[in-house]
Write a structure and sequence with these properties.
Chain lengths: 219, 446
Amino acid sequence: MQGIYEFVRGPLLWLTFIVFIGGSLYKLIPMYYLLKKKEAFVLSYMSLKYSLRSILHWIIPFASANMRQRPIMTVMSFVFHICLLVTPILLLSHIVLWDESWNLSWWALPDWIADIMTLVVIGACVFFAFRRQILPEVKYVTSAADYVILAVTAAPFITGFLAYHQWIEYRTMLILHILSGEIMLMAIPFTRLVHMFYFWFTRAYTGSEFGGVRHARDW
Amino acid sequence: MAVPATKLKEQKEIIDVGLEEGAARLTYERIEQVINRVITGEMAARMKVYVDTCIHCGMCSTACHYYLSHGTPEWAPVGKVKQTMWEILEKKGRVSPEFIKRASIIASTECNVCRRCSMYCPYGIDIAYIMATVRRICHLLGVTPQYIQDTAHSHSATMNQMWVKEDEWIDTLQWQEGEAQAEIPSLRIPLDKEGADIMYSVIGPEPKFRAQLIYQAAILMTAAGVNWTMPSGPGWDNSDMAMFTGDFETMGRVKRTHFETAANLRVKKIVMGECGHAFRSVYDVGNRWLGWKMPPIPVIHATQFYYELLKEGKIKIARKFKEPVTLHDPCNIVRGRGLHEMMRYLVNATCENFVEMYPNREHNHCCCAGGGVINCGPPWKTKRVESNSTKAEQLAATGVHICIAPCHNCHGGLEDIINYYKLNMHVMFFIDILMKTMEIPDSLKA
């Protein structure tokens, strides 16, 4: 057990960072060169002003017409993404690890808040899974991969929650937690989770076209 | 969205010779070869990023009037992408002739490339671009609906959309000039006048079906004292169905001819009639295909031209139009050029009673005729009209009998919807309203 723990906490973690960062660069850099080579016009239309205008309208809750038409989905998407990003970064137990390894530390969320935020992420994943089942227009375009992505995203939070509360054997759960977190990070560049990076570019380009060329709003 | 779903009365298969015979000529090998040529040669980073980014959330569905009208998932923008591009990419082009036929039907008759879905996608994915690429593949495979293919042939052979011969064109202009002289005896339609300020260009269907619009434009130009001209030869037509069939090579030739005609006449700018798709072609798609970031000669849409004439006081409104009117925002000049506020200025300047339809401006529902769909002709008409009960409801909710639509395709599409759903409305161009309201200086009158 200790051996597995040492492995996921040590070499596998390094591998994860390499795959996540390397994989992301492997996706983004050749894509940039492909764009420059064959669709350079895209770059020539990019406008900082209209990119930011578009991005802002889509990262502020209810700032677009579609978000206003779907209040439940909007609330769920925003709380999901916020909790997904903020909880692991501001979790005390994670910060302790950073402190031990790198002597880095920062402000931490009170544990009970982090606990709730974890449940929000899990709950949102369940919501998205049900949404895929219930809404015909979503079900129609859903494949197994979409559920796998949801499971991959929810897993670190489920295992983390169980490990924290120590309801099931702590050590095993901790290993599963680290492992699932690593799988999620490694999956980002190679699955549709890559929208984490691409969002900013697709939005920026659409925003630049709508604002700079077409003089219209895109939200 | 609380829009009642209307089912197609009979899911009768529509037979289109262009699709049937085109698909019959295909083999798996040819399909694979052509698709891979497009994938490696024409698609690049944008398509990859769009396909990788789409999280399959379905948020684009309620953007689409087809989905809103039918209510089933295969009509949603993402549903159409699933049935076409996803499959094409997943199978790396190993798809059947039957699949290509179906893909052509979806891309050509179930999507108006109106770009409303781009405004509803959280990532701003350009779904119209994906559909246009499907059309491109179908074009290269020779599987395009027959009627629109005929207009593309006409573009290629005559540089106009409607097989109008050169003498017929000049004759039509002279005929309209003669008609208009009954109102303003000194009126001329100046042909090939070098160094004029403005070249006025129209779409092929104007001389063919709506010649009175040329008469009206001549009255407007004369009353406003504009130094203008029209070309006597090829280049007079700004329309572009080749853009919508995916025949970009023909599109490029047609656009080059149009711009070169203006360049040869040494005009300062091109003013075009009230057409949406033609504006998209000269301002957004065709010019870029030819390598110009923006049009090489400034091009303005008629509505912007009217707006400027009114603002500058070159035309004056003698009496306002009394009957209540509503305004339909055409996709290609609103989502395509943001002319919506100028159009509202025009309506308020010329009409006494303006009733907005909702949603409006960039969020207006499409007419379901644009993007080449109406040009797919009679076989597809019933489907097209039944696919836009949403528009019928939107129009009916205004409670007025006049709808202004400054776009030819919208005009035709809305008339069809109005007739089919018995809405008791009438569609007008802005110039129709101007003819009824503007002042013609006494010095010009007969």
